[in-house]
Amino acid sequence: MKSACVIVIGHVDHGKTTLVRALTGMETDTLEQEKQRGLSINLGFAYCRYPSGTIDLIDAPGHEDFIRAMVAGATGAQAAILVISAVDSVAPQTIEHLRIAMLLAVPVRFIALTKTDLVPSEGLENQISDIRSTLSQLGVSGIPLIPVSPQSETGYLSLHEGLENLLSEDSPLNSPNAAFLPIDRVFTAAGRGTVVTGTLLGADLALSGTVVLHPKNQPLTIRGLQSRGEDQARVKLGARVAVNLRGVASQHVARGDVLCADGQFASSECVDIELMLLGDVSRPLKHMSTVRVLVGTSHAVATVRLMGERQVAAGQRAFGQLRFSKPVTAFAGQRMILRSLSPPETIGGAEVLDPWASSVKSGDAARLAVMRAAVTGDIGKIAKALCEQGQGVALLADVTRLGRQPAVAVSHGVTSEVTFISEGLIAMNQSLAAEQAGILQKLAAFHATYPLKRFAPRTSLNSQSLSPKLTAHVLGVLENDGAIRLDGDQIALEQHDPWKLLTQNQLVRIAEIEARLKVADVMPPDFQKLTEREDDHDLLNLLVMADKVAALFNVALKQRLVFHQSALQQAAQTLRVNFPPPMLFTTGEAREVLKTSRKFIVPLLEYFDAQGITFRQGDVREMTKPS
Length: 627
Known about the structure:
By secondary structure, the protein is of the alpha+beta class. It has 5 domains: 2-168, P-loop containing nucleotide triphosphate hydrolases (Rossmann fold, 3-Layer(aba) Sandwich), CATH 3.40.50.300; 180-261, Translation factors (Elongation Factor Tu (Ef-tu), domain 3, Beta Barrel), CATH 2.40.30; 267-366, Beta Barrel (Elongation Factor Tu (Ef-tu), domain 3), CATH 2.40.30.10; 377-486; 502-623, Winged helix-like DNA-binding domain superfamily/Winged helix DNA-binding domain (Arc Repressor Mutant, subunit A, Orthogonal Bundle), CATH 1.10.10.10. The strands form 9 sheets. Strands 7, 8, 9, 11, 12, 13, 15 and 16 form an 8-stranded antiparallel sheet that branches. Strands 2-3-1-4-5-6 form a 6-stranded mixed sheet, with helices on both faces. The chain has a 6-stranded antiparallel β-barrel with strand order 17-22-20-19-23-24. Strand 4, helix 4 and strand 5 (108-114) form a beta-alpha-beta unit.
């Protein structure tokens, strides 16, 4: 069976509660104070059952002191009934309630004209004409206006017919992708414990579900579910629901808290918005103004940081961030009401673009581009804007949140435009192609400038504007494709071979360096003497890369030492002959056998340790068995 939630709005004492009572037979004024004063203070709840489903009615307080309650009641409503007294016509709270409904994107589907029995028949048509004219100026026209009175059932029958027809319509409900219940009442039920109520958004709620209470981020379990006074195993999206919670006392839950599907939502002190100022506000909204924000069933004070603007004029739209003093829980696409603190009046509304935004400066062009993309709802544009803000990469979860679509749909929607460079992390194909071309171009330029260097340092490819994760992915692709080779923190084009680029003079010189090292055996000349000419350093490094010589380091003397591989092999053989395993030997004994000095023996033995040729045990070593 289908259900829908309809809020009944209008000025105080225009007959909203009487209308709901006549439609449902239920009394929504439950407080003694409400009954004594004849004035609704809290939200009232009732429902109408029809063959095709159920309409939940929310009776909103009409007094200006209870605007917060009215906004809380409108949360989750799919439509509104605007109640106007035929005696008093359009009044101040009629206008404010109407504006709030429009700002919250809750369409007024019916206008119920009450107290028609108190207006002479000859003057009623004129009154209706005046009301229609006034409403038209407020942007409301073409909506059924239904006179109702205790003396005639005709109006109520028409309202019932209209409400039942709502159930057959596919009315889109502004809602997230997972269960989201803004709490409007909290109480303790005898024998049951804590119970919270609200209008269910997002998705169905089941007894077996695990939920989290925000903004406290407290995991809870569901003990029981009721809808319209009946126990339920599952409550559907859009219905009024009472949730019996296990694991929390009622005093630790408040109206304005949100019960959410586990792991699907979070609270934040910073929210990206697009705001709209009403057309008749007395003054513009300035950057860094303080406002009261009514969102869902909660309210909080926030600072408005306008993006790229210093102020917003009446009737205009702008992008900005709301910075709250305490965390709020919202979802992308949710509507908010903005009110001035003094005097306390509605000045405009806002749509949440990103409920978990990061604080940025008002001049942040990249974030402003993200906000503009979020308004379009275009997944491709949102992904591109987020990648540009994120140095070329973006989380798919962020695209999903701002795109207001299920993750699977978003993933399919961007497949042709992005590449997953790691779990949940995307990059635009265009950016990846550009980075590949850039890396190859930089390497070609480096090799042209330094032809004798076999590798370029990877730091030479670093870009301040791109994420290291994007660069790492591109390097991996290029390496797999055989375009480059990587060696630790060094990189080169695969086709680059310095040996093929050596001139005749360089070939002669490199042979001379190698010959000197061979002759020197385990007493090689100092590094400085080996690299006296301009190209010697690069030539020596080529010998190291070719594994013809080995570069060692004397840590104590801070000296680089270079040994020919033949000298190292012979030294290892000499040690093995003189100290066959398991015979132990000291550094001094090894020095004497090899006829070298301490300057060379220490780095030499440390090299053998690293190569697994020797095994050190404190101050002595043992030759390992040859493999």
